[in-house]
Design a protein that fits this description.
about 150 residues; alpha+beta; 4 helices; seven-stranded antiparallel sheet; Alpha-D-Glucose-1,6-Bisphosphate, Chain A, domain 4; START-like_dom_sf; Polyketide cyclase / dehydrase and lipid transport
């Protein structure tokens, strides 16, 4: 069963090239994301590359791995989280004033049963966790906007 698509967007008064430089530097993901504490692309930023990540929520820490599924410079970066089958993406669209940045979490085929179980057991259930993810997306986008506009 497909999970709802989670999405947030923000308009940034900076050129696409500036925003892309921030979004595509995965080492900086912990600066943007309230949950991500570490993200490293193994072998560089390229389609098919793997990443190793560490996430945190309160006292709870958990590792994940991802595979970069799409990489279109200055347009789109997407990666699949192996542990739960979700795909996270950043899409950049030029606007008159700069860039529209859209962050999406898609679980087209639902999340893995173990992930759903763990979210239910340790993270307050799927609905509240998904709201927390959207709040985190909005926080991430606001941080990227602040960095791009300075």
């Amino acid at each position: 069963m497909a999970a709802p698509i989670l999405q947030a967007q923000i308009d940034i008064n900076a050129p696409v090239s500036t925003v892309w430089k921030l979004v595509s530097d995965l080492d900086r993901m912990p600066q943007w994301s309230p949950q991500c504490r570490f993200m490293k692309a193994l072998g560089g930023l390229r389609p098919g590359a793997r990443t190793i990540n560490m996430n945190r929520r309160g006292r709870l820490f958990w590792p994940t791995t991802c595979r970069i599924t799409e990489l279109v410079p200055e347009q789109k970066l997407a990666f699949r989280v192996n542990e739960n089958n979700t795909v996270w993406s950043y899409e950049l669209e030029p606007t008159e004033a700069g860039t529209r940045l859209i962050e999406t979490r898609n679980a087209e085929n639902g999340t893995k049963a173990m992930s759903t179980f763990l979210v239910g057991k340790f993270m307050g259930g799927v609905p509240s966790f998904e709201q927390e993810l959207v709040d985190g997306m909005n926080a991430s986008l606001a941080r990227i906007k602040a960095a791009a506009e300075n």
